[in-house]
Amino acid sequence: ILIEKPISTDIDSAIKIREMAKIARKPVLIGYQLVFHELIQKLIQKIPDLGDIQSCNLVFIESLSAMNPFRNMDNHHLAKPDGGGVFLGLSHDLDLVSCLFEATGYEEATFWNILKSPSGAILACDLKASLVSLKGDLPIRAQFSISEENKTRTITIIGSQARLELDLVSQ
């Protein structure tokens, strides 16, 4: 059973889903694709109003402990060098940009300002890449950070006619 986040809007429905899964002897899997979020669907409708897209900038800053406050993150896979670190934690944002612009891949990806934990996990980095899209190449700049700074998650799309800024934390 595949369910998009949130599992339910109330506890009774969540319990019913759990009970149905037990009866059917099927696991409940939770997806989290930003592209299906109502706010993102509105964003997709606004993109043509921006004109020719010139660039897209992403900023993602979040404390590792705040990502999952219900567990000790010291031993979590994101905190380990072979567990993906910042890259795995930010895959939703890169996936969203890929969906928004019908991407077929990335070229010329360059990472800099890489900050590693004592164990070697990547805690922060900057990424510059060119998104290869059916609509032409698009320069992407992203700042990814797992840190104790204030939580930030923004997307800025700059077009020839307008600029659109989306704050995924407060909106």
Strand order of the largest sheet: 4-5-6-3-7-8
Tally the beta strands. 8
Largest sheet: 6 strands, mixed
Order of helices and strands: EHEHEHHHEEEEE
Helix content: 10-25%
| Strand coverage percent | 35-45%
Q: Which structural category do the helix and sheet elements fall into?
A: alpha/beta
Task: Considering the chains and any ligands shown, give keywords for the structure.
171 residues; alpha/beta; 5 helices; two-stranded parallel ribbon; six-stranded mixed sheet; single chain
Quick structural overview:
Helices cover 25% and strands 37% of the residues. It has 171 residues and is an alpha/beta fold.
What can you tell me about this protein's structure?
This protein is an alpha/beta fold and 171 residues long. It is 25% helix and 37% strand. It is built from 5 helices and 8 strands, in the order βαβαβαααβββββ. It has helices at 11-24, 38-46, 64-67, 85-89, 91-100, and strands spanning 2-4, 29-31, 53-62, 103-116, 122-133, 138-146, 152-159, 163-167. The strands form 2 sheets. It has a 6-stranded mixed sheet with strand order 4-5-6-3-7-8. It has a two-stranded parallel sheet with strand order 1-2. A hairpin with a 5-residue loop joins β4 (103-116) and β5. The two termini are 29 Å apart. The model has no long low-confidence stretch (mean pLDDT 75).
